Amino acid sequence: MQAVQQKLAEAGLDSVQFESRILLETVLELPYGAPLPQQPLTGAQQQRLAELTARRCAHEPLQYLCGTWEFFGLEFQVGEGVLIPRQDTETLVEAVLELRKNEPSTCLLDLCSGSGCIPSALSVHLSGVTGAVLELSPEAMGYLRQNLKRHAPQLECIAGDVLHPPAELLHRQFHIITCNPPYLTAADMEQLQPEVAREPETALFGGTDGLDFYRKLTPLWKPALRPAGWLVYEVGAGQAPDVEAILQENGYAQVHTVPDLTGIGRVVLGQR
After folding, report:
1. How many domains does the chain have?
2. d(CA 31, CA 261)
3. Is residue 12 part of a domain?
4. What does the alpha-carbon distance between residue 103 and residue 100 come to, in Å, rounded to a whole number?
5. Of the candidates 51, 54, 49, which has an alpha carbon nearest to the alpha carbon of residue 13?
6. Main-chain dihedrals φ then ψ at residue 140, nearest 5 degrees
7. I need a labelling partner for 35 at 20 to 30 A (CA). Which of 8, 166, 192, 246 fits?
8. Which residues pair with 109 in a beta bridge?
């Protein structure tokens, strides 16, 4: 462990104790936090640990090396080509759980679904969730199908472009439409950490000011909301006032922002 930590530290990585433990658990195929065995690693395990350490020192995302990552208490398959689930997005899940907590059923549509962490978490924690998810990337779609099969097999998985949606989706009526769209600005993209730069650009870049998808999706998907249904977005730091304005300009009611645990406005929602 100390040798792994030293290599990670020399590569300029933070949290070397945590990361070395995660890499070792991955090699040993142990769940997070499980007791580590006392016996030394086999030759094959040592080789695997050295390989993973070298890849992490080259700034390959830790989550991709593990192949799974936790979100809202659930395990998700992740890897090259899919956006890694983040704690920020748990704020969106909590906002929807609050909106639908007393409802017997929820018809849900998740746009830009990626790993499927949002609809999966909602399906596990709400009763009677039905609906669909929409994802364009073939690389992400493989992970999305695996994760939905595990956590939300009742949801329909549709390959398509949120900006040019399948007609059948626009004619359906959903209680909730969720979306964590690409929202990084051009300036953000120039300053990405090496690890984030390994994630798909199509899931990150939201145009010069980061607001392109909010401007296009907000009017486009309004017909797919039931009367009194909610459109619920994740937004980047500092974007909440602009996204609120976009929703208001498009006739949404009760537009408001929900902060994340650090107090940053992270979720913007409005009602049809």
Report:
1. 2
2. 26
3. yes
4. 5
5. 54
6. -70, -35
7. 8
8. 132, 177
